[in-house]
């Protein structure tokens, strides 16, 4: 990653009682040629390092050369001491402050990209903060429309809707909205992944993509007109495809990305095909943001057995995206 010599990445561990802090300590041990600044509580990170019996030096600012075992820290203290496996809603404000301050740093240009650990949605809401997900939080903060996409080496799955009750999904899918999602996805395939003319498969909403209107009308009334309009602009769009067979390996090889209509239509396939190395990317922000694909794993927190692969992949993906954007868009 020689182009990434000067990269400055902001890192947010997420829920302090989850596996995020210990994964950050493991990440800190890796040799790297980019700077990492973590936004969180020193006590939580030091406790995690002590439990893992790994060295951790927290510094006020990144040193000249990144050193294994060392992280620059922007201190965001927790309201109360965090205990692995037992989240405390009183720490919700600190979790959100860490995310928003790190994102602010990216918006200001102090950092080139943002990497985030898992956040417990219910705990944040129990702490009195309305929160559906970090994707939505960062979009509102940046004033941008965004698309959530999860990716591993096998498949990229973008979502037309994100954290919504299933009952609300059909009403949230419109021609205008789908067009905006597909434009963001198309643009990002080029800017972030170097694919200038991506082939995007679009799933139907209903079983068998609506079975010619006998099992639902959204394909005929919303999805097909959207695809027709964007095909006229030159986009390569396939679909609407029945979701149950769109992910067959032979078909997937022909697609650069798949657009699913809702969270649990696409993500189980992605996670089944490779949970460990998968990452969650927010497309459409002014800076690259990449998160782990997994949640807080409270059942594993503090035991030292959580797999850090997704966080490692998130940092590597974020660094590659920064380099790709610089090459294609300038500094954006
Ligand atoms: N990126 C984020 O901020 C995400 C946050 N979440 C949130 O996390 C919370 C818990 O969600 P769950 O549905 O229980 O999903 P989860 O991913 O925390 O756990 C599901 C299963 O996967 C295992 N697992 C997760 N990460 C692992 C790792 N790194 N190594 C080994 N095993 C691992 C857990 O032990 C558990 O058995 C929820 O509040 C959810 O909203 C969920 C997904 C992503
Ligand atoms: N399923 C993805 C997830 O829950 C994490 O999303 P976000 O908090 O990064 O928006």
TrEMBL record:
It comes from the Bacteria. Its EC number is 1.1.1.262. InterPro entries: PdxA (IPR037510), PdxA_fam (IPR005255). Its cofactor is Zn(2+); Mg(2+); Co(2+). It is an enzyme of class 1 (oxidoreductase). Belongs to the PdxA family. It comes from Marilutibacter alkalisoli. GO terms for biological process: pyridoxal phosphate biosynthetic process; pyridoxine biosynthetic process. Homodimer. This is 4-hydroxythreonine-4-phosphate dehydrogenase. The active site is located at the dimer interface.
């Amino acid at each position: 990653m020689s182009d990434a010599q000067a990269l400055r990445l902001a890192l947010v561990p997420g829920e302090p009682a989850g596996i995020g802090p210990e994964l950050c300590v493991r990440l800190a041990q890796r040799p790297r040629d980019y700077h990492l600044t973590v936004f969180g509580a020193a006590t939580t990170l030091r406790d995690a390092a002590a439990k893992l019996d790994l060295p951790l030096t927290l510094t006020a600012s990144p040193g000249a050369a990144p050193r294994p075992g060392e992280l620059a820290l922007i201190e965001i203290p927790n309201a109360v001491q965090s205990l692995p496996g037992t989240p405390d809603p009183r720490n919700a404000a600190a979790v959100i402050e860490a995310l928003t301050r790190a994102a602010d740093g990216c918006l200001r240009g102090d950092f080139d990209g943002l990497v985030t650990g898992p956040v417990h949605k219910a705990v944040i809401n129990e702490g009195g903060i309305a929160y559906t997900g970090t994707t939505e939080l960062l979009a509102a903060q940046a004033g941008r429309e965004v698309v959530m996409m999860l990716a591993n080496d096998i498949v990229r799955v973008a979502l037309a809707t994100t954290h919504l009750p299933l009952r609300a999904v059909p009403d949230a899918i419109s021609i205008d909205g789908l067009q905006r999602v597909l434009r963001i996805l198309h643009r990002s395939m080029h800017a972030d992944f170097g694919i200038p003319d991506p082939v995007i498969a679009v799933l139907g909403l209903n079983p068998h993509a609506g079975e010619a209107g006998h099992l639902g009308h959204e394909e005929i009334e919303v999805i097909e007109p959207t695809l027709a309009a964007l095909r006229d602009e030159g986009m390569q769009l396939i679909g609407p495809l029945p979701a149950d067979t769109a992910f067959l390996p032979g078909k997937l090889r022909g697609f650069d990305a798949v657009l699913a209509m809702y969270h649990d239509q696409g993500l189980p396939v992605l996670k089944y095909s490779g949970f460990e190395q998968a990452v969650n990317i927010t497309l459409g922000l002014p800076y690259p943001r990449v998160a782990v694909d997994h949640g807080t794993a409270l059942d594993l927190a503090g035991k030292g057995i959580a797999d850090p692969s997704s966080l490692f992949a998130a940092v590597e993906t974020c660094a590659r995206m920064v380099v790709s954007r610089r090459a294609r868009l300038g500094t954006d």
